[in-house]
Amino acid sequence: MTAWLPDDTIPHHGETPHHGVGVLPAPHHRASAHQTSQVTAAGAAWLAGAAAYPRSTLAQWEAHPSSPGVLPCGSAFDVVNVPTLFGRRMLEHLWSDGPGSGPVATHRGRMLLFASPGTAQRLPSLLDWEEWGGGPEPRAAMDPQLRDDEDTARPEDGDGDGDGSDGKVPPLLCHGTGDAVTVPPLTCAPAASGPRWVVAPDTRTPWLPGPDVLLWACVRVTRSTPPAAAREPIFPPADQSAKVYDVSRRR
Asked: Phi/psi zone of residue 16: left (φ > 0), alpha (ψ -120 to 50 degrees), beta?
C-alpha cells in the first residue's frame, strides 16, 4: 500500500481527463474476471485525485485501509445513485449490450454508478425531456441524516418497486459539483457490512459513462422489464349460457 504514496503522477484537484459523451461509444469491455472488488494502487490514485489534497488522502487510506472515505464530486467524476435492483439491471445491459461501465459501488440499499463530470446536471434533464423520469426523490432519501433520524423505509427495498417494471425510471440521485459521496474502503473483508465495491477502480484513467449512455441504459431496463403478471382467478369464468335457478324460496 505504500506504493500509493511516492507517486508523482497522481492527478491534482481539477486536473481531469476529458471524457466523451457519445451515445454508445466504442466498447470498453473488460473480462468479468477483471471486474475486481478491490481497489488497485492505480485506482486509489485516481480516487485521491478527486480530493483537494490527494497525497493527504492517500496517507489517510494507508493508515486506515478498511475505513470508507468521502470524496467530492464534479471534478474527477459525478455519481448517479439508483435503487439497487434497477442499478443491477442497468449494469447487465451496459456490459452485455453496451460499452461497459465505470466504477460501481453499493451503499445503504443503493447503487452508485461513477460517471463523467457533468452527468449529474444533464441526465435528469434528458430523462425529463424524453418523459422517462420518475419524479423527484423524497427529501428524506436525499438527506442521509433525515433518512437515519426518521427511519424512512425505502419502497424498493420492501415491495419490489423501483425496478422499472412500471415503465418509468425510478427517482435518481445525481451527485455533481458541490456534492460529496461516501466511497467504500480500499480493502474490504468478504463479510464486512457497509459500502462495497461492485466494480472497483483499477486504472488511473478509468472510462466513465456519460449522460447519454446512462439514459440509454435506463430506457433499456424499462423497456425490457416485463410488467407485473395479472393475477389468475381462483375460479374458472362463469358460463354465460348456464341456467340459474332461484333456490331462495322453498316449497
From this structure: beta
Residue 94 CA neighbour count, 13 Å, CB half:
28
Give dist(CA 149, CA 218) in Å, integer.
Answer: 31
Per-residue pLDDT tens, the chain, 251 aa: give them.
333 333 444 444 444 444 433 444 544 544 344 456 789 999 999 999 999 999 999 999 999 999 999 999 999 999 999 999 999 999 999 999 889 999 999 999 999 999 999 999 999 999 888 765 554 443 334 444 434 443 433 444 444 456 556 667 898 999 999 999 999 998 877 777 889 999 999 999 999 999 999 999 999 999 886 655 444 555 566 666 666 565 566 55
Distance of CA 64 to the CA centre of its chain: 25
State the CB neighbour count (10 A cutoff) for residue 7: 16
Q: In the structure grid, which three cell numbers stand for residue 242, read together?
A: 348456464
Residue found under cell 423527484:
136
CA-nearest of 198, 202, 188 to 42 is 202
Query: How far apart are the C-alpha atoms of 222 and 129, rounded to whole Å?
Result: 16
CA-CA distance, 29 to 230, in Å (whole number)? 38
End-to-end CA distance of the chain: give it in Å, rounded.
95
* Phi and psi based region of residue 77 (left: phi greater than 0; alpha: psi -120 to 50; beta: remaining): beta
